[in-house]
């Protein structure tokens, strides 16, 4: 069983022994500690009804924010109304649902789901959402880092003259290659900025093409840094912007090729050839959360 708890929805699913999805339920997420637990309970109860059987295994939960896996606690999940002190979410959920719970950061959970989808033991998962962050599976194990900061690629500064990032540094990759960066570069009203920008670029709009290429180059730079650090077998793009699908992969692959054009060494690594995008209908974070129980 896995839950992907997000700011707007909680998605839950049950997997069979082979990783196939037996049941899937989506409910709106209510903010705050009580709201999160209540939302999770609604999804869990609906999954029991959908499967027609008791659910007594370990429930894996992915949630945004800073997660202390050993304590089963989360903080700085601001969009969920969780800030300040650590929230012991694992124990709150276990007490409410009556099953053991494994808690993990949502990007790390999605990384496990991406590794299961690609059937690989070495993978970088780059989540391009409001921010920019990566998850790492190395030799079949999730790498969190000594302080939980592994994969925080969005806060690598690349432009000393760039805008100030929310982390306090200037010119971070996140200010160039994220959903929020796209929204700032290409305001689009009710249309998702990534879709609007890529659509305008396809029409030949030179301003849109320049904005798309700058964004794609930023994503490619994040991939290059991560790949030179850990040399993964597979590189997977996910997060809200990845709903673009193949156009995103092609744009980032082209940026990778251009960055490698003057470097035989970089070209030999074929980073563009390792690039994948999570299918839009694959609930990667909820699947990865379910694997936490193993």
Automatic annotation (TrEMBL):
Pfam families: ROK. Belongs to the ROK (NagC/XylR) family. PANTHER family: N-ACETYLMANNOSAMINE KINASE, ROK (REPRESSOR, ORF, KINASE) FAMILY. This is ROK family protein. It comes from Nocardioides hankookensis.
């Amino acid at each position: 069983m896995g839950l992907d708890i997000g700011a707007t929805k909680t998605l839950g699913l049950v997997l069979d022994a082979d990783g196939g999805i037996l049941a899937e339920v989506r409910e709106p997420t209510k903010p705050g500690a009580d709201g999160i637990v209540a939302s999770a309970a609604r999804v869990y109860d609906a999954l029991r009804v959908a499967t027609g059987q008791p659910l007594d295994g370990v429930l894996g939960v992915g949630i945004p924010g800073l997660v202390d896996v050993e304590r089963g606690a989360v903080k700085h999940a601001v969009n969920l109304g969780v800030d300040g002190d650590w929230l012991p979410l694992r124990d709150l959920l276990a007490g409410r649902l009556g099953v053991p719970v494994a808690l993990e950061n949502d990007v790390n959970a999605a990384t496990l789901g991406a590794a299961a989808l690609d059937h690989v033991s070495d993978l970088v998962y780059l989540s391009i959402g409001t921010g920019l962050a990566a998850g790492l599976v190395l030799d079949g194990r999730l790498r969190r880092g000594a302080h939980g900061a592994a994969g925080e690629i969005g806060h690598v500064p690349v432009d000393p003259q760039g805008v100030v990032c929310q982390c306090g540094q200037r010119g971070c990759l996140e200010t160039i290659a994220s959903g929020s960066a796209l929204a700032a570069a290409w305001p689009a009203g009710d249309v998702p900025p990534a879709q609007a920008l890529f659509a305008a670029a396809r029409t030949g709009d030179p301003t849109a093409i320049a904005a798309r290429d700058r964004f794609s180059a930023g994503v490619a730079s994040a991939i290059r840094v991560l790949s030179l650090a850990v040399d993964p077998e597979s590189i997977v793009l996910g997060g809200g912007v990845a709903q673009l699908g193949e156009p995103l992969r092609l744009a980032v692959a082209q940026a990778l090729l251009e960055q490698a054009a003057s470097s035989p060494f970089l070209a030999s690594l074929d980073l563009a050839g390792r690039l994948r995008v999570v299918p839009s209908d694959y609930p990667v974070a909820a699947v990865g959360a379910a694997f936490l129980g193993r």
